[in-house]
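mind reviewing both lines:
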Amino acid sequence: SYLIFTSEQLFDLAGQVKLINKHIELCANLNLQNLYDGGAGNFMLPALDENSSFNGNNFTISNFTFIEPNPIYTSVALFRGANSLDIDLGNFPIDGLNRGEIKNLKIDKMTISANSLYVAGISVAQQKNPITNVHILSGTIENHATTSQDGAVLAGIVGLLDVTSIISPDNILTNNFMFTANSTKNLTLKHSFAGDTTKDNYTGSLIGFLLIGKTNSNISVIIKNNFTDYATESDSYGTGLIGRTTMDLCDADPLVSEK
C-alpha cells in the first residue's frame, strides 16, 4: 500500500505508469499549487489494475492543473489510465483505461484544458471496478480538440464507463455495476470542438459515454445518489448527467437511475 501525506508523494507516484495489486490511501488534504510553483509540469496519476484501488478517505486534493493546447495526448484525466490500447475494451480501444476502484475523494479548484479525444475529471475510461463517493467541488474542464475521427468525449467524473467487462464469457450476469454517491458542483464544462460537425461529441456532467452491454447480455447499472451542479459551453450530443448510452445494444432494461 501507498500512504500519501504530501503533494510530493503524490507527484512521485505519478512517475509510475501502472499500479498492480497496490492500494493507495490518501492521509491528508493536499494542495498541489506548491508543486506547480516549484516548477512541476503536467502530470497524471497512474493506471490502476483491477486489483488496485485509490481511497481518498474523504480528503481533498486542491488545484490539480493540466493544461495542454496541443493534441499530444489521446486522453486526459486525474487518473491517466493505461498508456496503450487495450483489446478488452471491445469496440472502444482507447489510451486511458483504468480498472481499479476510486472512492471517497474530493477535488477542489480543478483545471483541465486539453486537446484530446477523451477528457474527464477523474478517470478517462473505467472498467471492472466502480467510482464511488467522488466529488468535484469546483473547477473547469475543457476539451478543445480540433479534429476527431469519431467525435470527442468530455465528462466531469468518467469519460467512458464500460460495464460490459463484468459480463462473463457466456454472457451471464456476474454482478450489478454501481455508480453511486458521486457529484460535481460549481463545475464548468467547455467543449469547443471545432472539427467535423457531422461527428457526435458527448458531454456529461458525470459520465460522457456509458457503454452498457452487448446483444443478449443481461446487465444492470445502478446510478444512484449522484448529484450535479454545473455550467456547460458545449457543442455536443448531450449535456446532462450522461452524454450518451448504448442501451440500444441491450435486450433488457439495463439502466436504473435514482437521484
